[in-house]
Amino acid sequence: MASSSSDNRPCRKSVHGSTRPVLSEPFTLREPQGERFFPECPERSRRKGSPRTEKTTFETNYLAVRPERVEGGTVNCDTISKKKGTLYIVSTPIGNLEDITLRALRILKEADLIAAEDTRHTGLLLRHFSIHTPLTSYFEGNEMKKREFILSRLNRGDRIALVSDAGTPGISDPGYRLIRLAIENEIPVIPIPGPSAVITALSVSGLPTDAFLFKGFLPHKSKKRRDILKQLEEVKETLIFYESPHRFSETLRDIFEVLGDREIVLTRELTKMYEEVLRGKVSEIQNALGEKKIKGEITLVISGKTRKKTDREIGR
Length: 316
Known about the structure:
Elements: E1 86-90, H1 102-110, E2 113-116, H2 119-128, E3 135-137, H3 143-155, E4 159-163, H4 175-184, E5 189-192, H5 197-205, E6 212-217, H6 222-231, E7 238-243, H7 248-259, E8 263-268, E9 276-281, H8 282-289, E10 298-302, H9 311-315
Parallel strand pairs: 1-4, 1-5, 2-3, 2-4, 6-7
Antiparallel strand pairs: 7-10, 8-9, 8-10
Helix pairs in contact: 6-7
């Protein structure tokens, strides 16, 4: 029995005495509702773990058939292709759990799988919010092995949430390579925005925000670190780096000797109980810290190169 034209659903007619559904143009697919239906293959049309059903619905997680693929007035089972899954890039708190968004919570609950940089760390977050979605690890040490597994799950229609230890995935972590792989395989990639240590530190720095350059972690060794800083000496944009507390004193020394005594903002343990923001010249921060051992993740914000005033300008 055909549906009304205003409904925009496929017509359902009987062909040669069968009850197989027939598509008539135009047709649209409704928002996915989780029902798995293949018009010509009712034995495959069921929810996971539910009894088999011959319910006819096009509110589905799978693409039906393009009209030009319909031959002889009926849908050919071989022409029905399963819709690919979705990779969600989910931002998580960088410290305070209250910073997670409602949308992030919903996606983490509804996903078929969560790919986490550290399953133990993410497990604490999930338990806090009573989320029981299965976890799999995805980090720099196992990415080559795991990305094929994750890709296979996406290709079969699963929804996978990618999370890092904290903040937005893909920023200074191997997540971006999984994102590129999904894009190359025409798998939808959807951002679930939220906390980011880079933007959080910049927002409270008081330094120019109209243009900035984020360079991730500086190299461990002083020579390589100085080489990078030398390349950035003429950059006028605000500079942002991540740094480990274990080598922070050496990094400050290299910054002072290569970039000079610039304005700098040190942010540590942002959004956590012992959050700290120190502002001043590089030399002032060095003096304030002295030999003090600091803990926690650090984000450094450094002023860009400023034009030196001429003697004439100073005399005005």
